[in-house]
């Protein structure tokens, strides 16, 4: 489907978010806002030990608490005691005789008449656990002496072998090396995890909750309850942020609640408090990486060799697919002839990380961009020029040897930031500041990234989406998609696409909460794919319906189809000037029993991929971004303030420019939190920073006063109107740019994020 | 969790309620409610100060200022008495929490909470504050250094409450206040430093680097002996650091806290030297 055309009705215009008002006035229903008759409240019992064998679960005291309805353990699971989408290594509830593998392992679910009773009873359950020594670091895990799982702590290895790196290094004039570490990051969504499972009138279960992926939840609940998919209906409630943290995790939350609903026969509500949420739900993976890059005198990249280890925690969850993205993005947005990358997934007795905006790539993009900065400094090449010299263009080949034939906006974004930042002047300004300040120093950091859109070669089997569009007798339109709104603006952009294609006003379009009963499995809402996949599916369905309305219009007016125009709530014969309102036309169509509902189904052509060599078409297309950040470091305290930032994004086509600005602002701030503040601290595998008094995220005061966002458009022919994704690329360049800016300010290389004041002060004091 | 809430309307009523077991006073509740939720304390009676008449005034009492126990940080920030006579207090209060927290939290609550990171404690220590205590045996006043006994520990006895704090005016002193937190707003101090300087008189206090806020008296005397001109920074520093005994905790290491205090002291005196010259 070639979809690049010039449309001007709604697409590209300034639109108010369709879900803004209920979210502002409080009418929006989030998971915790739903109540059902005879509902029980649930609370989880956690193992609270890093590693050991579960010997006994004593529930007597809990059952004595008045108001407790039941305590459910592994014995009460009717189906498979198994969670996890990719590797089957994670129990729903740990069985007696089996291993506890991290502090947050769930052992039992308490159901009670109130939340407070459930919590009190959960605290009265005592567990007997025979402790084993715990594996708490990547280094310890690699020794492979104490095993988290048999047969090895290092079960997953992914690689790229392109060209010949030894040759490449031989032909290099300079070789640079560096070791980097990127720590955990918590998604810190406003709304914690929450699910309600209710026995329903279809003799099955309906699941309501905050989530990104209703079809994952449906699968998991069916498996745990030993029932079929047509007995589990999942409806997403308004979702207060997700950032990847509600990709696989809600499947687990729903499974625990389902065990309670099944055993009590009553609606069961499980809402996490913040501590349970932080202790038990996924994070961004810590990644340790080692880089070796060979360059010519002039700064041409000749070879890169990368080894990266990611901490998967106690269970693999989504790690194997997160690793795929780490692998593909490790060498950055550059055309390098010789590439060797090895990524290893490592089990430890800690929280299992999973999906988080960027999915395994910001960790390595930080590292590769730090290397680029180092090269630029040591070879005295302007950092933007160095990147322009090496970046991907039409006709370039990526690290996986993917030949890029269109939609490569990398160069444009680099040229764009140079312009919007007033680069030469900015450098002089910072120099002048540093000449007049003793206790504070400023630095300028540059970063440049690419980002594979959608699931890519590792997730092709999930890369298709449906959309159901139905025109009602009054001219209003129902749109049902499988992709979810979680704050990113999906409903708005989908409503815009439907309005554009049908010619109806956007106010008349209702994009419903996803419901598995209406739309077939559309894959997950992840990987910046919703605009492209649900968007294209909606476009297909809506344009089909428009054809039917044009037929009715031509019948009524005698117009020729090619002269018919639509938009602003009416259809028009451009020749005769005859007009019929959308509502009138629909009335006529209904009288003729026309079919005014349609299902769109969109999938992309399959990608060529050699998993053994890591060579081929990794993703359907790539988004590109460049960023410049100015920081000010206080040399007395090591504190960093981001003073200015300029960021440019190639989005293919900006369908909803306001939405893009919102995404980039949010992504920038979240990336800044990752780079500077968010430091997950542990003691013996237990997370100490389990609320926002100690897990520090940025506030409005940390946002730079100057944050300039610009967009470049290099259309992607298969995206709706040329669009690619922006949800994740909005965050990707920020940690790298900030780290590089600090390095320039203090004259020492930042090799770890978050670059906390303490870390920076230590670097300053060294030598 | 679960507790009864009492809303006394007079001090007498309050005193009667305070004789009950396992009761806690609540002013703004910004410390109390957090600790209850975390399960650190488990009172079954909460006695709120919200309905009591008065005690929400900031009064000029000659060379001292009196702040009643219902005065919030926001009220204090808008007070002309404090603006004129205790700029150091305003500098510290501006750094507390967020607008919401400043609208609810009280200065007396900050004192009774007795955290070494309590921001208003630095100006109170520097201004030789006295805590006005009322109880079954009548009123007594204790210097703040005697009132605060350790982290979360005070000299309050059963049945007593704090009516107000009183402290010296310091309008003629030059104030300096530095707070280092994990971010610029809504952050608990990991190290803080307050100074009042007038000629060869110096008062100096540290926060978050010892079990309580501390005054560095030896350093103050050294400054006086040197006639307000520090020639050997190391000797002055040594006298300051005697009072600095930080610990590693979830927010920062002891090393970091000490390092920051040293650097802040240096830059404070660099600043002062330039100003005086
Ligand atoms: C998000 C957040 C951010 C914060 N940031 C800061 C900060 O930056 N700096 C800082 O210093 N603090 C901070 N705090 C802590 C807190 O807000 C302050 O300590 C505040 O001043 C406490 O006042 P309150 O009136 O709320 O005290 P309450 O919580 O009501 O009481 C605190 C303690 O004092 C007792 N008490 C209160 N009044 C009396 C009285 N008259 N007589 C006897 N006992 C009494 C209570 O029983 C309780 O034990 C923060 C708290 C939160 C939740």
UniProtKB/TrEMBL annotation, chain B:
Protein name according to UniProt: Xanthine dehydrogenase family protein subunit M
Could you say which residues form the signal peptide? none
Coiled-coil residues are none
Q: Where is the FAD-binding PCMH-type domain positioned along the sequence?
A: 1-172
> Which UniProt keywords are listed?
FAD, Flavoprotein, Oxidoreductase
The answer to whether the entry has keyword Oxidoreductase is yes
Asked whether the UniProt record includes Oxidoreductase among its keywords, one would answer: yes
Check the record and name the PROSITE patterns matching this protein. Answer: FAD_PCMH (PS51387)
Q: PANTHER family given for it?
A: XANTHINE DEHYDROGENASE SUBUNIT C-RELATED
Record's InterPro entries? CO_DH_flav_C, CO_DH_flav_C_dom_sf, Diverse_Substr_Oxidored, FAD-bd_PCMH, FAD-bd_PCMH-like_sf, FAD-bd_PCMH_sub1, FAD-bd_PCMH_sub2, Mopterin_DH_FAD-bd
Q: Which Pfam families match?
A: CO_deh_flav_C, FAD_binding_5
Q: Name one GO molecular function term.
A: oxidoreductase activity
Identify the taxonomic lineage of the organism of origin: Bacteria, Thermotogati, Thermotogota, Thermotogae, Kosmotogales
């Amino acid at each position: 489907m070639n979809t690049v055309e010039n449309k001007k009705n709604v697409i590209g215009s300034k639109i108010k978010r369709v879900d803004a008002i209920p979210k502002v006035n409080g009418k929006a229903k989030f998971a915790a806002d739903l109540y059902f008759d005879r509902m029980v409240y649930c609370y989880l019992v956690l193992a609270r030990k890093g590693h050991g064998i579960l010997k006994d679960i004593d529930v007597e005291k809990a059952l004595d608490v008045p108001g407790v309805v039941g305590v459910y353990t592994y014995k009460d699971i009717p189906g498979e005691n198994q969670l996890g989408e990719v590797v089957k290594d994670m129990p729903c509830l740990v069985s007696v005789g089996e291993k506890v593998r991290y502090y947050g392992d769930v052992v039992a679910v308490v159901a009670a008449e109130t939340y407070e009773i459930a919590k009190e009873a959960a605290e009265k359950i005592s567990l007997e656990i025979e402790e084993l020594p715990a594996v708490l670091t990547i280094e310890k895990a690699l020794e492979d002496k104490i095993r988290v799982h048999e047969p090895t702590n290092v079960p997953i290895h992914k690689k790229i072998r392109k060209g010949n790196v030894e040759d490449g290094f031989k032909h290099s004039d300079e070789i640079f090396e560096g070791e980097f570490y990127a720590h955990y990051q918590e998604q810190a969504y406003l709304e914690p995890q929450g699910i309600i499972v209710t026995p329903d009138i279809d003799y099955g279960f309906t699941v309501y909750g905050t989530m990104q992926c209703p079809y994952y939840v449906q699968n998991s609940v069916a498996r745990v309850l030993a029932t079929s998919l047509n007995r589990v209906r999942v409806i997403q409630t308004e979702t207060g942020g997700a950032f990847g943290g509600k990709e696989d995790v809600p499947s687990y939350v729903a499974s625990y609640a389902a065990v309670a609903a099944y055993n009590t026969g009553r609606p069961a509500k499980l809402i996490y408090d913040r501590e349970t949420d932080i202790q038990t739900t996924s994070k961004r993976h810590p990644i340790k990486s080692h880089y070796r890059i060979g360059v010519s005198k002039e700064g041409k990249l000749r070879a890169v060799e990368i080894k990266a280890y990611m901490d998967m925690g106690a269970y693999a969850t989504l790690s194997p697919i997160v690793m795929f993205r780490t692998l593909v993005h490790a060498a950055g947005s550059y055309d390098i002839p010789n590439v060797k990358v090895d990524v290893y997934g490592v089990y430890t007795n800690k929280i299992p990380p999973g999906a988080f905006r960027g999915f395994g790539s910001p960790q390595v993009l930080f590292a590769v961009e730090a290397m680029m900065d180092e090269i630029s400094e040591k070879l005295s090449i302007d950092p933007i020029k160095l990147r322009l010299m090496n970046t991907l263009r039409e006709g370039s080949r990526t690290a996986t040897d993917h030949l890029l034939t269109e939609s490569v906006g990398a160069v444009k974004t680099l040229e764009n930031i140079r312009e919007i930042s007033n680069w030469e002047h900015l450098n002089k300004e910072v120099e002048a500041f540093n000449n007049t300040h003793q206790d504070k120093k400023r630095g300028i950091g540059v970063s440049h990234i690419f980002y594979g859109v959608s699931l890519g070669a590792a997730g092709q089997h999930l890369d298709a989406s449906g959309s159901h569009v139905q025109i009602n007798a009054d001219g209003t339109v129902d749109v049902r998609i499988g992709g979810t709104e979680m704050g990113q603006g999906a409903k708005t952009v989908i409503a815009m696409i439907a309005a554009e294609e049908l010619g109806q006003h956007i106010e008349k379009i209702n994009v419903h909460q996803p419901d598995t009963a209406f739309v077939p499995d559309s894959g997950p809402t992840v990987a910046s794919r919703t605009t492209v996949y649900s968007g294209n599916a909606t476009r297909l369905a809506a344009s089909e319906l428009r054809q039917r309305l044009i037929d009715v219009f031509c019948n009524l007016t005698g117009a020729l189809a090619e002269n018919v125009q639509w938009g602003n709530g009416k259809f028009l014969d451009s020749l005769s000037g005859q007009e019929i309102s959308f509502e009138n036309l629909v009335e006529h169509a209904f009288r003729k029993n026309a079919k005014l509902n349609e299902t769109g189904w969109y999938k992309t052509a399959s990608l060529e991929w050699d998993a053994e060599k890591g060579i081929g078409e990794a993703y359907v297309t790539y988004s590109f971004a460049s960023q410049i950040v100015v920081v000010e470091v206080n040399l007395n305290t090591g504190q960093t303030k981001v003073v200015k930032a300029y960021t440019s994004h190639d989005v293919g086509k900006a369908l909803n420019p306001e939405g893009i600005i919102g995404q980039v602002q949010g992504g920038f701030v979240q990336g800044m939190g990752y780079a500077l503040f968010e430091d997950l601290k542990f003691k013996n595998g237990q997370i100490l920073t389990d609320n926002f008094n100690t897990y520090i995220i940025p506030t409005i005061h940390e946002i730079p006063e100057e944050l300039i966002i610009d967009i470049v458009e290099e259309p992607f022919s298969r995206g709706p109107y040329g669009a690619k994704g922006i949800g994740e690329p909005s965050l990707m360049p920020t940690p790298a740019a900030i780290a590089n800016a600090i390095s320039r300010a203090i004259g020492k290389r930042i090799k770890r994020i978050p670059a906390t004041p303490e870390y920076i002060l230590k670097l300053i004091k060294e030598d | 969790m679960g507790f009864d809430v009492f809303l006394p309307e007079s001090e007498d009523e309050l005193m009667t309620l305070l004789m009950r077991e396992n009761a806690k006073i609540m002013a703004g509740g910004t410390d109390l409610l957090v600790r209850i939720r975390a399960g650190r304390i488990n009172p079954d009676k909460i006695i709120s100060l919200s309905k009591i008449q008065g005690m929400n005034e900031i009064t000029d009492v000659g060379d001292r200022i009196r702040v009643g126990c219902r005065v919030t940080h926001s009220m204090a920030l808008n007070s002309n008495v404090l603006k004129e006579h205790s700029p150091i207090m305003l500098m510290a209060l501006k750094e507390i929490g967020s607008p919401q927290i400043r609208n609810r939290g009280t200065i007396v609550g900050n004192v009774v909470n007795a955290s070494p990171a309590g921001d208003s404690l630095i100006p109170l220590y520097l201004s030789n504050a006295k805590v006005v205590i009322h109880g079954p045996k009548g009123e007594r006043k204790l210097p703040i250094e005697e009132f605060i006994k350790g982290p979360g520990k005070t000299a309050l006895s059963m049945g007593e409450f704090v009516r107000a704090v009183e402290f010296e005016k310091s309008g003629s002193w030059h104030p300096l206040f530095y707070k280092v937190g994990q971010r610029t707003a809504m952050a608990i101090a990991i190290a803080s430093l307050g100074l009042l300087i007038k000629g060869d008189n110096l008062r100096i206090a540290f926060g978050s680097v010892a079990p309580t806020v501390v005054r560095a008296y030896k350093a103050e005397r050294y400054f006086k002996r040197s006639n307000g001109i520090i020639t050997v920074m190391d000797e002055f520093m040594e006298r300051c650091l005697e009072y600095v005994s930080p610990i590693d905790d979830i927010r920062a290491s002891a090393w970091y806290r000490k390092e920051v205090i040293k650097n802040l002291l240096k830059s404070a005196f660099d600043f002062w030297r330039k100003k005086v010259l």
